[in-house]
């Protein structure tokens, strides 16, 4: 898979390193000469250019990319790169970094963004996830379909503890994608039983999040209030 990353700062280089380790082809693009540090990620291609310019993106052959990641520290730049990648070059998957949470509402399919990653929101979500049981935590927002990746740790008093996955009447527009149980990562099947303490990851429509949280957190009839 070929991936172009706009922004060769610490974030862009870290992403590039991970992708290269997984066998992908990576191009890093930055307009600042000081950001071009070939020796830090020598396996990547490098391009000194302004990713907001069509001529630069032509040179980067963006039409050959499977994914474009807008990873600069400037939200305006990330939006422009995303829009150009999607509308001018038809890139199938565009991922954009959100630096200021106030701008998060802009990072949607209207600007060509398939997945928006808000570092401040993700950090706060991870803090919430570490200390909360029974509360739904939003980890990631997908622009298409107005869906989110959400997590909930099943509390001991949940009525669903001990219930098989296939027996649960999940809300519409929700999908249980992973069960994390201790050190194990499980792909859920209808025969798997839910256990107290399970970390459940869902892709869910935002409108269904409250319904999902109520379903998972409901107490047993004989449990103390």
TrEMBL record:
Pfam families for this protein: TrkA_C (PF02080), TrkA_N (PF02254)
Any one of the GO BP annotations: monoatomic ion transmembrane transport
Residue span, RCK N-terminal domain: 1-117
InterPro entries noted in UniProt: K_uptake_TrkA (IPR006036), NAD(P)-bd_dom_sf (IPR036291), RCK_C (IPR006037), RCK_C_sf (IPR036721), RCK_N (IPR003148), Trk_Ktr_HKT_K-transport (IPR050721)
Swiss-Prot/TrEMBL keywords: Ion channel, Ion transport, NAD, Potassium, Potassium transport, Transport
UniProt domain RCK C-terminal: residue ranges: 137-218
PROSITE patterns: RCK_C, RCK_N
Official protein name in the record: Trk system potassium uptake protein TrkA
